[in-house]
């Protein structure tokens, strides 16, 4: 099979098309012919030489990618609920920039018929990170929640989930993305000097919880608004989290959570903006696009 992989860490240029042996489904697994795979900041960090957490092993040449959507073309012994031809969404660590993925059947769900492939390919990573983050900070009915980097892929879904759970959402973003945030139902606020005052003006009764996808100054100023630092969480600023005494949040993934996100999409209560798509052989260009930062929505690789 063809895959985009790297033989040594470095710039996006280290991503090259390579040939690998076709995988085969074992007991309890399916093989999926991939139609789309999301590009995550995690992928960029790994490619550039970042050391992943314990339990994640890089084996060169390494295929990146942790989320995918495609069509089941092989079913292993003992699998029920899926058959050859099933259209699915799934997640698996470090294998998804490839024509085929073998995965435990417990890590896939049925793709809604109305969901485009590029949305399906980009849903799991952003969706499950947003879900995990909001649950860890206890976002729910009656809360006013501030989301940093609200126009990004994770932020886009976090805005919608928080509202679905009964919260009022204020979202930080560059001014060119303010209309986009309004379309999602959030109250937009600009980054930069004076952020604390702007947020206080929008939420005179205070902020109950903060979910951060930006890090830096936006995260530092968040401690001015929320008395209980257990209700401030960051998905990116882990070093700063330790300094400030707030939550470092790492995404927890499950098929049940992914199925809930797919159901919300099917009900028209959740959408994911696709910023751009790239064919698999342009994976390096996709990484460059994500590296620009502050983009709206998700970057996805597509497959013929």
Automatic annotation (TrEMBL):
Gene3D superfamilies: Medium-chain alcohol dehydrogenases, catalytic domain, NAD(P)-binding Rossmann-like Domain. One of its GO terms (molecular function) is NADPH binding. Keywords: NADP, Oxidoreductase. Residues 10-301 form the Enoyl reductase (ER) domain. It holds the Pfam family ADH_zinc_N_2. InterPro entries: ADH-like_N, ER, GroES-like_sf, NAD(P)-bd_dom_sf. It comes from the Bacteria. SMART domains: PKS_ER. This is Alcohol dehydrogenase.
